[in-house]
Queue: 2 jobs
Job 1
Amino acid sequence: MSISKKVWNIPDLPVYSLATYDRKSKVNMNICTYVTAISLKPKLYAVAVYEKTKTLKNIKNSDICVLQLLSKSQFNLIKKLGQTSGINFDKENYLNNKNFLEEWENYKVLKNVSGRILLNKKSFQKTGDHYLFIFNVIKSKSYNTDYLNLKLLSEKKLIRI
């Protein structure tokens, strides 16, 4: 017996937003699911970032970013953060106008996330249509376990899996 899903679409992955900052500390955020912890000591994370994006430009020019585990209530941010380019759209302005931003560790981040991880860039390499970044974890904070996942995005017809 087989199913129609691709094997990489079987796991119900968490949905994150990577907050990156330009040289003027202006925040941009994306949506990412190619994310995983890769070491306990030291604590390291791997995050894949799509090519030709504002997120990629920012993170290549800065060592610090904040990985945010989105909560289920934030599914409505997927179109603006993940399906709209930060090159042509001011995501910080949009998020400010909606009162969705706050500061954490002196960085602009989303309110009401399930968790946050302050990351320091260690290395990166091009891997197909993404760049794979390895980050050291500086600090993390968990708020709740009601996190957004691919299954909910599929149910809301925001993605097809």
Job 2
Amino acid sequence: MDYTNKIILVTGATGSFGSNFIRHFLKSHAPKRIRIYSRDEHKQADLINDEYYGGVLDGFIGDVRDKDRLRRAMTGVDIVIHAAALKRVQSCEYNPFETIKTNITGSMNVVDCAIDAGVEKVLAISSDKAVAPLNLYGATKMCMEKLIINANNYRGKGKTKFCCVRYGNVAGSKGSVIPIWKDLAAKKIPIVINNVNATRFWFDMKEVVNFATEVLEEMDYVSGGEIFVPKLPSVKIMDLFHAMFTTSDFSINGDRIGDKVHETLVLADEMKHTVDATDKFIIIPQDPHWEYLIKPKGVSCNGRPSYSSDSNSEFLTVKTIKERLEKIG
């Protein structure tokens, strides 16, 4: 796709995903403008003043809760990447009203404003927590997925196409276990492990933004309403620990509120309407209105078990984890 004359808006643009997506995207594409929409004026200023971005960024201070501001920011926009969210699980549990306002009401505003502005594509960033959610964050992400999927009906005769990407925790991202453990080690505090049997999918930030960019391209060839899920290797939490440290000194904290021992990216029930597209799964909307529309190419997954980190066919070894840790720094 040629982005030369396209204006892109990224909600949550100053967060980990948003800022990395913009940096990666500009390596291979030259859009007309990228509008960064977020609440943090200082981080916006840092991005806008960074010569790396070549002066193509426009800063819009705003919250996805503010529909009027969002509507103004979307005027003339061709593509929206919706990454704005409150995502810290424990914080969301203790601040449920605020979480719902941002993650659900904010997503409703994105849908409405995108349709009204005649946006071509909206790609929303979801999470494994949306799958059989155990916590409020996951429940709001599940609702966000439903809103985005059904926006393809809600739009009526509008042209906007809505899709989601769904993935697990990003290795090395803010608030994830790797920086937390590094911080504890630097302070000479024993490493805390919540559950020694835990497993996670491995997905680093570079892989995340690569995948999102690929999906953005692939949206030209689907109907809208699909959820794209990458195929990833798994890691055992204890293998990650041994890859990072030579010590065997750690304490067990127990599972936190809303934590899952393993990550699941596609439920067995979802497999009934999912296709295996070699390097990814594509979950097709379970709605009779989609029966006559374009179906993604791939092999039907009907009858397959859930795609979970504990039952995955590929696990990284301690050696491979060390190599990957060196890459992410």
